[in-house]
């Protein structure tokens, strides 16, 4: 009788947690907000001539086709566009409201755009592929006229991609704001790693303040579904569809072979605390940006942010296309041509 009551209690708690989490945002593809687009921020990959040429082409097209739009650029892009754009400064000072972000580059350019709005909502992001990676880039640059027309006329759809809200805490458990502002948000992952230290990191992991495990490993990765195809994937984590509301906990080279990656409910609050048993501090990085040492007793608290990144998408099939074309998901090891090429290489070595 007690086991039945326990199952019912757990089921009820799970439904309540899911309901709380669903009030933040929906993970499904949804229509673009119907507000008129007046201020457009264009972000480019730095030090790339092809991207710089694309920036000039795109800016000219928007000025000619949508004269009501005011274009904003980061300081490094202003020289490329002369005096035809406004300066956008990444700071806490008052800035003009941005209605649309356009990125030109790779996935890192979208992460950079997210970091510019790291403590609040992010405007819709329209991304054109001009970089080395393209998991977050549904549009080729040569399609920009049609893509911009759909966005400006309100016919586009957006996929809200989860972000993580992070806070740091000292040995006493008090929040520390010296390294990141309150409510700092990341799009891919939070990582704890032993870095240059020769000793493994010892990290206590808590989920909703319940102790889950003591990890002895090179490190831990806590990622979003978007980040599941980044550092977590190279560490053996699964690929997670971006519409799933979940947190992914992936160990980096753990001492225990039974420590497998975990999918946690999106409503979870996770605390990663450097154990007093740890013989060295661990390096903390967020979306690969910056690094700070966390010493024994210090911790990072992570939960789903109420402010996802609304990425303009073709359809929900973008994800399936990406893992097949970019990851070669479930592709055979070698085609017949590949086997022949391998045989020729082996003959040459002999």
Automatic annotation (TrEMBL):
<dbReference type="Pfam" id="PF20143">
    <property type="entry name" value="NAD_kinase_C"/>
</dbReference>
<protein>
    <recommendedName>
        <fullName>ATP-NAD kinase</fullName>
    </recommendedName>
</protein>
<keyword id="KW-0520">NAD</keyword>
<dbReference type="Pfam" id="PF01513">
    <property type="entry name" value="NAD_kinase"/>
</dbReference>
<comment type="similarity">
    <text>Belongs to the NAD kinase family.</text>
</comment>
<keyword id="KW-0418">Kinase</keyword>
<keyword id="KW-0067">ATP-binding</keyword>
<dbReference type="InterPro" id="IPR016064">
    <property type="entry name" value="NAD/diacylglycerol_kinase_sf"/>
</dbReference>
<keyword id="KW-0547">Nucleotide-binding</keyword>
<keyword id="KW-0521">NADP</keyword>
<keyword id="KW-0808">Transferase</keyword>
<dbReference type="InterPro" id="IPR017437">
    <property type="entry name" value="ATP-NAD_kinase_PpnK-typ_C"/>
</dbReference>
<dbReference type="InterPro" id="IPR017438">
    <property type="entry name" value="ATP-NAD_kinase_N"/>
</dbReference>
<dbReference type="GO" id="GO:0005524">
    <property type="term" value="F:ATP binding"/>
</dbReference>
<dbReference type="InterPro" id="IPR002504">
    <property type="entry name" value="NADK"/>
</dbReference>
<dbReference type="GO" id="GO:0006741">
    <property type="term" value="P:NADP+ biosynthetic process"/>
</dbReference>
<dbReference type="GO" id="GO:0003951">
    <property type="term" value="F:NAD+ kinase activity"/>
</dbReference>
<dbReference type="GO" id="GO:0019674">
    <property type="term" value="P:NAD+ metabolic process"/>
</dbReference>
């Amino acid at each position: 009788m007690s086991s039945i009551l326990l199952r019912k209690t757990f089921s009820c708690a799970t439904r309540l947690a899911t309901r709380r989490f669903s009030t933040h945002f929906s993970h499904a593809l949804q229509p673009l907000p119907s507000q008129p687009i007046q201020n457009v921020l264009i972000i480019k990959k730095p030090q790339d001539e092809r991207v710089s040429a694309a920036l000039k082409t795109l800016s000219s097209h928007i000025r000619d086709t949508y004269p009501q739009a005011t274009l904003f650029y980061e300081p490094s892009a202003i020289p490329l566009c002369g005096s035809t754009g406004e300066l956008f400064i990444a700071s806490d000072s008052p800035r003009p409201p941005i209605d649309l972000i356009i990125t030109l580059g790779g996935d890192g350019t979208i992460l950079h755009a997210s970091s510019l709005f790291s403590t609040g909502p992010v405007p819709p992001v329209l991304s054109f592929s001009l970089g080395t990676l393209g998991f977050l880039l549904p549009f080729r640059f040569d399609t920009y006229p049609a893509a911009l027309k759909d966005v400006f006329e309100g016919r586009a759809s957006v996929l809200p991609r989860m972000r993580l809200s992070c806070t740091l805490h000292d040995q006493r458990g008090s929040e520390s704001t010296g390294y990141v502002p309150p409510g700092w948000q990341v799009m891919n992952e939070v990582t704890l790693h032993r870095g240059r230290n020769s000793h493994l990191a010892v990290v206590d992991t808590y989920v909703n303040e319940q102790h889950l495990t003591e990890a002895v490993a090179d490190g831990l990765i806590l990622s979003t579904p978007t980040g599941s195809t980044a550092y977590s994937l190279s560490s053996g984590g699964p690929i997670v569809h971006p519409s799933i509301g979940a947190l992914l906990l992936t160990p980096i080279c753990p001492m225990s072979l039974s420590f497998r990656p975990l999918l946690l409910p999106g409503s979870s609050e996770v605390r990663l605390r450097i154990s007093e048993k740890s013989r060295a501090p661990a390096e903390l990085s967020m979306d690969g940006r910056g690094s700070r040492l966390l010493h024994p007793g210090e911790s990072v608290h992570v939960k789903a942010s109420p402010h996802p990144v609304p990425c303009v998408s073709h359809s929900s099939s973008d994800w399936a296309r990406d893992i097949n074309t970019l990851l070669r998901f479930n592709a055979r090891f070698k085609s017949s041509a590949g086997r022949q090429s391998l045989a020729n290489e082996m003959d040459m070595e002999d």
